[in-house]
Design goal:
5 strands, Metal_Hydrolase, Amidohydrolase-related domain-containing protein, Amidohydro-rel, Metallo-dep_Hydrolase
Amino acid sequence: MIRFMTATLHNNILKFMVTGGVLTQGVRAGAEAFTEGELRAGIEEAHKADKLTAAHVQGLAGIKNASCAGIDTIEHGAFDTWDEEALDPLQSRWLVPTFAAPDGILSGTGTLPECIISNTEPVAAKHQENTAAAHQFSIRIVAGTDAGTPFNPHGNLPWELELLSRVGLSHLEVLRSATTVASEALNLTGQVGTL
């Protein structure tokens, strides 16, 4: 299946849904969908086809599996506990926290199904604190919004940048997260993200 997808995809990135997320009723955010070995096989096939790989991940076990398997970027990366040993492999990856997604969802309390709010609250509670710790651990952070999630429209990047500044990134680091660091993560250094 991965070989078929990498051969037929016209996009340059293949995203793996490594764990459950917060929007699907009956699925626990952080529930692992792949073993490290399964991910490694898919990632190797994608890389053979010159595709970058991204991982939708909630939870430390999923982050560790995806990082150890060779994923290029970690999307969301929300986790409720901090474990430097488990995050060591993430130092050679990029983390895209997408704070605007849970922020938008929680702003929809009263209009969204309760299961979405109850899935999001525990994830969001520690997400910023632990992303700040990841930043202190020298993990590269890329700005991204996960636009299209509830109450998180396209064009919401300025709000994401504000949220990144609240977890300890300097103004220069915030700017770079949306420019040079993002272009590095996408293998577009020298083409976009710099003047």
